[in-house]
Backbone:
C-alpha cells in the first residue's frame, strides 16, 4: 500500500480497509493528520498503549472487537464489544486496547491527529510493528 500524503487524495475508505491484509499500513500522512488501515487475525490485539499528545478515531469495517480504555494500564474501566460500522473515540492520554474477538479478520481504519507513524509505514505483522515501536522508543 502507498502512503498518498501529504498530497490531496480521495479514496473509497471502505474498499481500502477491506482490501488491506497487513497488520498496519499508512494510507495518508499529512502535517496534522494520519490515516492507517489495519487487519488483525482472530484473537490478536493492537496491544495496550497510550498516546499522550493526540486523539484517535477508529472505525470497524469488518469483524468484532473488544474495546478497552481507561486512565491507567491497570484501570481499563471502559469495556465494550463492537462490530461492523462502529466507531471508537480514544482521547489523548487514555490507555486503550482492541482485541479481535470474532471468527474472521478484524479490519479497521484509524485516524490520528497529529500523525503517529512515519510517512509510508507498512507493518506486515504485529511483530514487525512491535519491533519498530521498540526501535522508535530507543531514540
Residues:
Amino acid at each position: 500500500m502507498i502512503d498518498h500524503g501529504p498530497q490531496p487524495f480521495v479514496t473509497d475508505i471502505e474498499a481500502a480497509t477491506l482490501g488491506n491484509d497487513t497488520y498496519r499500513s499508512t494510507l495518508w500522512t499529512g502535517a496534522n493528520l494520519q490515516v492507517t488501515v489495519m487487519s488483525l487475525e482472530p484473537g490478536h490485539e493492537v496491544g495496550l498503549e497510550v498516546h499522550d499528545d493526540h486523539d484517535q478515531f477508529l472505525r470497524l469495517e469488518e469483524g468484532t472487537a473488544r474495546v478497552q480504555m481507561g486512565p491507567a494500564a491497570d484501570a481499563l474501566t471502559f469495556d465494550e464489544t463492537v462490530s461492523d460500522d462502529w466507531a471508537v473515540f480514544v482521547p489523548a492520554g487514555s490507555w486503550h486496547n482492541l482485541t479481535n474477538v470474532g471468527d474472521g479478520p478484524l479490519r479497521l481504519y484509524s485516524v490520528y491527529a497529529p500523525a503517529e507513524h512515519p510517512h509510508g509505514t507498512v507493518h506486515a505483522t504485529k511483530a514487525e510493528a512491535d519491533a519498530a515501536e521498540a526501535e522508535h522508543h530507543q531514540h
